[in-house]
Each structure stands twice: as structure tokens, then as C-alpha cells.
Design goal:
- By secondary structure, the protein is of the alpha/beta class.
- Helix 1 packs across helix 7, helix 2 crosses helix 15 and helix 7 runs antiparallel to helix 8.
- About 3% of the residues have low confidence.
């Protein structure tokens, strides 16, 4: 065996250690990349489901429905789509809807004169009733109204005024050319139906009315100032609510302000028992919440207490921890989505996910039974017992699974979130009459989100203010069963009679607050505008 000198052995040892270190570093790097790959895979699965998938909170297909036999759907356990829209097969139905209340035009169709007599003997036919059929027409009518103010001249030599003239026409916008109904419809089209101003201009053009975008934009800006008192009154009532649903979503405002280096603002919604308030704020921080609720020195005014239903975003947690008088209820629908997304991203977690979804479904079932039952009834007591039993079962299972080292890391991540938010989720036991989720606020944001897709946000600060005011007024009116077009028309008419100014006087404004309005006004506003 050839001699190997000490230096060669030492070189080999150094080289082996070098490659061993490289191997260990490579293994560590592979582990990091695998972890990152799993994370990105989960994100892709989640975003794909959000973009293309069916909502996990839609009603599953009815039992026995074989219209879509796919059995891999994790939300329904069957994979079918949501039930078919419209009338169910086999149901009796309600017949054709009656439209007799609409403006009616009668058109008579007659046979020719030659057909009114016998072709053989020439004897005249006698009338024998008629057959009718009904059509519904859709007419967009843009009308030019010319108001003639008649004047009269004195024909005597008395001291009375020499000339009298009919009083000036009340206008919501002084020297404006649009009626209150036109301005109200303009707001409805933009903020209720999400139509950009240039598209409204195009629609008016199809009916023969050519307006510039600037003309309509200027009218909207003038309307914003008129709506301010009504918006403030609705906000004031909203802040007095003992329970609010709160949520927020991004909103672009293309305006420069101090200490703000981006165009990304936030649209906040506050849903109370009978009012809904929207506010567009530059930041997604605690300040909009404190400002809306009137928090001073981290305390609510008048020692009030407010229950806030929300998701578990850090701002709401900070509100609960740092401001006295708040009690937070976290959203069970949000935590449910965490389980569903983990199952979507990792096939091995689907059974685990389905088990948790069933537990949450049991919680919702018990909650519905409680609130559907009469007070102090046996059904309510059974519902309360069932609700507490499901909570205890969840508590036991989450603790067991948190200590299970064989469970997938993605599952542990969801369980960690569940553990962190457990107190706010189980706080529903003390407020069993309130909803288990924050879907009320999420639904309220749907109309603004449609507008965001269509016109990308607000081009100026006044436009953002008008958007919030319009959604506040329109949504609150709808919650009272009021036709927002009729309501806004009446309000703007009142502004016109107030010298084209906003209704700053409390007595004049009180008439238009739904909770203070007379039954006659409410009934009038619930119908179409005159």
C-alpha cells in the first residue's frame, strides 16, 4: 500500500468537511424552498378559489339533486353547483305578476272594413267583444321644461307695485338647468348602479340628450354640499347604536394630501340597527373608528358600551384592547374560510377541513334554533344547550389537534389563528341574539365594490365625500323600505325651496330622517316619484 503523507490526509479531511458543509447548506436550502413552495401553492389555491371558485357560503344543492354529479366539492360534500335559479320544479308558482299600477296606454286593433261583413251575402258583422294581450314598454323620456312666469302691469295710479310677477322657480342648484328628479336619478345611476359619468352621458345621448361630462360632474359636486346635513344626521344616529357591524375595503382617491404617498384609501362601513354609514378615509388605522364613534382619551362618550362585529384585523383588536366600553365579536364565517382554504391547498387536509366545517355548521344550526324559538320556550333551551355543547367540543378538539405533531403545518397555522381569536369567537355566547358573522357589513360593501370596478375610485376629495354621503343616504333609505329616487327627489325639492341651500335647520331636516318622518311621508317615499 503506497505511503500517504500527513499533508494529503489533512487536505482530504478539509475537502470532505467542505463538501459536507455544502451538503448541509443545500439540504437547508431545499427545506426552505419546499416550505416556500408549499406557501405559494396555498396562496395560488386560495386566490384561484376566490377568483374562479364558487362561494363557500352559498347554499348547497338540495338532497337528490343530480344536476351536477361531481362529488369532490369540499364545501358541499357533493361538488354540485348552487341550486338552479328561479322557480323550483314541481312548485305551484305564483302566476303572472300584476302590473295594473303602471301608466297604461290602450291601443285598439281593428279588422279591415272588408272583413266586417259576410263575404257571401254582404251582411254586416255585429260587435262581439274583444281579446286582449299585455305588453310592458320601457321608455326613457328626457323632457325640456319651460317655465313661464307671468307678469302683470298696474293700470291705475295707486301706490301698489307697478308690476307683479309669479315667484321664482325653486331649484336645488341655483341657476342650474336640471330638476331635482334629474339630479336624484344622476346620483342613483352613479352610486346605486355603479355607472361612471361618461357612461351616463352615453346613455342620455341614446335618448337624444347631449350633455358633457363636465356638466354632470359639476352638478354632482353641487349636490354633495346639499346632502351634507342629511349625511351628518344619519352618522349621528349610527354612532349611538349599541351594536355595529364594521368592515373596510380599499378605495382609490386620486388626490394629493399631506402625509399620504399613495392613492390607496379605505372605504369603511358601519351597519347599525336602522342606519348604514359609509366613510372614505385615507388610512386603514384605528383613527377612523375612533373618530366615527367619538372616542376621546380612549373612552366612549357618556360611558356608553358598544358591541362591534368584525373580522379579526389588527385594528379591531386594538380597539377592543385600548378603548374602554367595547366588546368585540369575531366573525365565524372568516375563521371558517381559513379551514376551507387549507383544505383547498392541501388534499391531505380535506377530511380535517370537512370535520371542522361540519362543527361550524352545527354552531350556526343551534344559533338559528335559538333565535327562531319563542323566549323561555323548551326549543330555545335545547338550542342553548346545543350551542354550548358545540363550543365545548370545538374547544376540546382544537387543543388536542394543536398538540398533534403529525398534523400538517398548514393545519397548525389555522389552529393557531383559531386559538388567538377564541375569546372573541366564543363571546357570542354572551350575545346570542346577534349574528355569528360579519356578513352584514360585507354585503353592504357590494354596491360600492361594483362602482370601484366600473370607475376605479374617486378623482377628487369632494367626489370621495359625495360617494360616502350618497351610499349612506341611499342604503339607509332602502333599509326603511323607501324608494331612494323618490326620497332624494323630495329632499332636493326641499333644498330648492330653502333658497337652493342645504337643510341646516333641525326642524326642516327632521322631516327627512326616516326614524322621525311622518307615516304619510314614508308612504309617499315608498312609491315612485311623481
Amino acid at each position: 500500500m503506497p505511503d500517504v503523507d500527513a499533508k494529503s490526509v489533512q487536505d482530504l479531511v478539509v475537502e470532505v468537511e467542505y463538501w459536507r458543509g455544502r451538503a448541509l447548506a443545500a439540504e437547508a436550502r431545499v427545506g426552505e424552498l419546499e416550505s416556500r413552495l408549499a406557501e405559494l401553492t396555498e396562496q395560488v389555491a386560495t386566490l384561484t378559489k376566490i377568483l374562479f371558485g364558487r362561494s363557500s357560503e352559498k347554499t348547497p344543492p338540495a338532497a337528490g339533486d343530480t344536476s351536477n354529479p361531481d362529488t369532490d366539492n369540499p364545501e358541499t360534500g357533493r361538488g354540485g353547483e348552487s341550486p338552479k335559479r328561479g322557480q323550483r320544479q314541481g312548485s305551484k308558482g305564483h302566476g303572472r305578476r300584476d302590473y295594473a299600477h303602471l301608466e297604461t296606454e290602450d291601443i285598439y286593433h281593428d279588422v279591415s272594413e272588408d272583413e266586417k261583413c259576410c263575404r257571401e251575402c254582404g251582411a254586416a258583422y255585429s260587435p262581439y267583444g274583444e281579446e286582449t294581450c299585455e305588453q310592458i314598454d320601457w321608455i326613457v323620456k328626457i323632457t325640456r321644461i319651460i317655465h313661464h312666469r307671468l307678469r302683470y302691469r298696474r293700470n291705475c295710479h295707486c301706490g301698489a307695485p307697478g308690476i307683479v310677477i309669479a315667484p321664482p322657480l325653486p331649484k336645488a342648484i341655483a341657476k342650474g338647468r336640471f330638476t331635482s328628479r334629474f339630479l336624484a336619478r344622476l346620483c342613483i345611476e352613479k352610486f346605486c348602479f355603479g355607472m361612471p359619468v361618461n357612461r351616463i352621458v352615453a346613455c342620455l345621448g341614446l335618448s337624444g340628450a347631449e350633455f358633457s361630462t363636465g356638466t354632470l360632474t359639476g352638478s354632482l359636486r353641487a349636490v354633495s354640499a346639499l346632502l351634507e346635513p342629511l349625511d351628518k344626521a344619519i352618522r349621528a344616529r349610527n354612532t349611538q347604536a349599541s351594536h355595529l357591524h364594521v368592515d373596510e375595503t380599499s378605495w382609490a382617491v386620486f388626490a394629493e394630501i399631506a402625509n399620504k404617498d399613495s392613492k390607496r384609501w379605505w372605504l369603511w362601513v358601519f351597519v347599525g340597527p336602522d342606519t348604514t354609514v359609509f366613510r372614505i378615509e385615507p388610512f386603514r388605522s384605528l383613527e377612523p373608528l375612533k373618530d366615527h364613534l367619538g372616542v376621546v382619551a380612549n373612552k366612549l362618550p357618556d360611558r356608553r358600551e358598544v358591541i362591534v362585529s368584525s373580522d379579526f384585523y389588527a385594528v379591531y383588536q386594538s380597539l377592543n384592547q385600548n378603548v374602554e366600553g367595547f366588546d368585540s365579536l369575531w366573525c365565524w364565517a372568516h375563521i371558517r374560510r381559513y379551514f376551507i382554504r387549507a383544505g383547498d391547498a392541501h388534499k391531505e387536509l380535506r377530511q380535517w377541513r370537512d370535520e371542522w366545517v361540519l362543527r361550524i355548521a352545527g354552531l350556526y344550526g343551534a344559533h338559528s334554533a335559538i333565535n327562531d324559538a319563542e323566549p323561555d320556550s323548551p326549543e330555545r333551551d335545547r338550542g342553548l344547550q346545543s350551542f354550548d355543547r358545540v363550543i365545548r367540543e370545538m374547544d376540546t378538539v382544537r387543543k388536542q389537534q394543536s398538540n398533534d405533531t403529525s398534523l400538517h403545518a398548514a393545519a397548525h397555522k389555522v389552529l393557531a389563528t383559531l386559538d388567538n381569536e377564541w375569546a372573541g369567537l366564543t363571546a357570542h355566547q354572551d350575545h346570542i341574539e346577534l349574528p355569528l358573522d360579519n356578513n352584514t357589513a360585507e354585503r353592504a360593501l357590494r354596491t360600492p365594490v361594483v362602482g370601484r370596478k366600473n370607475y376605479n375610485g374617486s378623482g377628487a376629495l369632494w367626489s370621495a365625500e359625495l360617494a360616502g354621503r350618497s351610499w349612506t343616504i341611499i342604503t339607509t333609505a332602502q333599509r326603511w323600505g323607501i324608494n331612494p329616487l323618490t326620497y332624494l327627489t323630495a329632499y332636493l325639492d326641499a333644498c330648492g325651496e330653502n333658497a337652493s341651500g342645504p337643510l341646516d335647520e333641525p326642524q326642516a331636516l327632521a322631516r327627512f330622517l326616516p326614524w322621525m318622518a311622518s307615516e304619510d311621508d314614508l308612504n309617499t317615499w315608498r312609491g315612485p316619484p311623481p
